[in-house]
Specification:
Layout (H helix, E strand, L loop, with lengths): L1 H22 L2 E2 L14 E2 L14 E4 L7 E7 L2 E6 L6 E5 L6 E7 L9 E4 L3 E6 L11 E6 L9 E3 L2 E6 L15 E8 L2 E7 L6 E7 L3 E4 L1 E6 L4 E8 L4 E7 L6 E7 L10 E6 L8 E6 L4 E6 L8 E6 L1 H4 L2 H4 L8 E6 L6 E9 L3 E7 L5 E8 L4 E8 L6 E9 L2 E9 L1
Parallel strand pairs: 1-2, 7-11, 12-16
Antiparallel strand pairs: 3-24, 4-5, 5-6, 6-7, 8-9, 9-10, 10-12, 13-14, 14-15, 15-17, 18-19, 19-20, 20-21, 22-23, 23-24, 25-26, 26-29, 27-28, 27-30, 30-31
Length: 417
């Protein structure tokens, strides 16, 4: 009896420890990735993706007045932009239907040394006068104004609050074309401003943090990311907690995008990092990006020798959504069906036709895309297979079940009574 008890205790301990290890397993949690791990629970930022090359749809040409557009933000159903160095300190509001300038707002106490970016949070608009092409500037500045200071119609001249800053690791201010202290991108996040540098020296981007309050600060260095190109603009989507960075490859002038998502807090580079190359827009200098609604973006480019200043559309959903959200398809004749138990309609039978002989995972998502149930299954042979899934713990409502293995993904919506 004692020996049997010890054996049971040993087996229980091993199973319990195994369950803990599996529950805490880190790895790639994105089914889009080539190294997706079915059993990973915590995303460790290791996801790898196949190359993506695309040409974003053309939206409209920009007026000559904003031919050197260098930042975008969407507010009050208008697209706000500005020009960069050696222009007036003016924000321009554009009608997104006609592309006409409908408002001009001057920063009365400001100057445009080199305005390179514009961003906002729920209360304020921020203008980044921190362009630093030669690396010699000691007057890096951000202008802050309340969103309710912007008139709903007509032109205006307003006073802005001022944030001055410097980089903690810059000691050499001699002119250079290979330095790492230029900046053309920042976002507002949780009461701070986060700057993504445009590193001319190593084509990476450094991340610095500043308080989003008026004052003079030494920026705090927080991270670095090998962007493999010069970052020229950024946008944060608070609804979906994702960031889009845009830029171009130095001296080649090929534009690209980085989509950052599934990160925790301000560890922006700790989640998924997916690159989109826009090689068909070579010599297009992309300079501004903003979210409109959902995951729809606008990307602006300034006037160049080969292109007029223009704006493009882009939607991040196919690249950053959970596969169940857009029902990814795959080659082959496999399909998924749901059959309700005649006695208990929260006891589902899932039928997989032509299922692969591999480990698989089943996720149940609620109507806002949150995973509310997860199971792992193993098919011993390639054939029709049935899986029973008990969802009695879930309330009535609309759901989606997603079946996935390393080579295929299937999803189907359903409703629990």
């Amino acid at each position: 009896m004692k020996m049997r008890f010890l054996i049971y205790l040993f087996c229980f301990t091993i199973c319990f420890q195994t369950a803990i290890i599996q529950a805490q397993k880190q790895g790639c949690t994105d089914p889009h990735a080539t190294n997706f791990d079915l059993y990973a629970v915590e995303n460790d930022g290791s996801c790898k993706y196949r190359p993506v090359i695309l040409t974003p749809p053309f939206a409209f040409e920009l007026p000559h007045e904003v031919r050197e557009t260098s930042g975008l933000v969407f507010h009050n159903n208008l697209l706000w932009t500005h020009n960069d160095s050696n222009h007036l300190p003016i924000l321009y509001a554009l009608d997104t239907t006609t592309a006409a300038v409908v408002q001009r707002v001057e920063i009365a106490n400001g100057s445009n040394v080199d305005w390179e970016e514009i961003t906002k949070d729920e209360t304020y608009l921020y203008i980044g006068d921190f362009g630093n092409n030669a690396g010699a500037r000691k007057d890096l500045r951000i202008y802050r104004l309340r969103l309710d200071q912007l008139p709903e119609t007509g032109d205006a001249s307003i006073q802005a609050e001022i944030i001055d800053f410097s980089y903690p690791d810059q000691t050499d201010f001699s002119r250079s074309r290979t330095h790492n202290f230029d900046c053309e991108a920042f976002i507002a996040f949780n009461g701070h401003l986060y700057l993504f540098t445009k590193n001319r020296g190593d084509q990476q981007t450094k991340l610095y943090r500043l308080p989003a309050e008026p004052g003079t600060y030494v920026a705090e260095f927080t991270d670095v990311f090998d962007s493999k190109g010069l970052i020229t603009a950024s946008a944060y989507n608070a609804e979906h907690n994702e960031i889009t960075l845009i830029g171009y490859v130095n001296q080649i002038w090929t534009p690209f995008m980085w989509l950052l998502y599934d990160f925790e807090g301000d560890d922006f580079f700790g989640g998924n990092k997916r690159r989109i190359d826009l090689i068909n827009l070579v010599t297009t200098q992309t300079e501004g990006v903003c979210y409109l609604d959902g995951k729809n973006l606008l990307i602006s480019s300034e006037e160049s020798k080969t292109f007029s200043a223009r704006v493009f559309h882009f939607n991040t959903a196919p690249y950053t959504d959970h596969p169940g959200s857009n029902s990814l398809s795959f080659a082959g004749k496999s399909h998924l069906a749901i059959i309700y138990d005649s006695l208990n309609q929260k006891q589902l039978q899932l039928h997989f036709n032509n299922a692969r002989k591999e480990d698989a995972r089943i996720d149940v998502l609620d109507d806002i895309g949150q995973i509310v149930h997860r199971e792992h299954v193993k098919f011993k042979k390639r054939s029709d297979s049935w899986v029973m899934i008990n969802l009695e713990h879930l309330p009535s409502g609309k759901y989606e079940v997603v079946f996935m293995n390393p080579k295929q993904t299937l999803s189907i919506p359903f409703e629990l009574p």
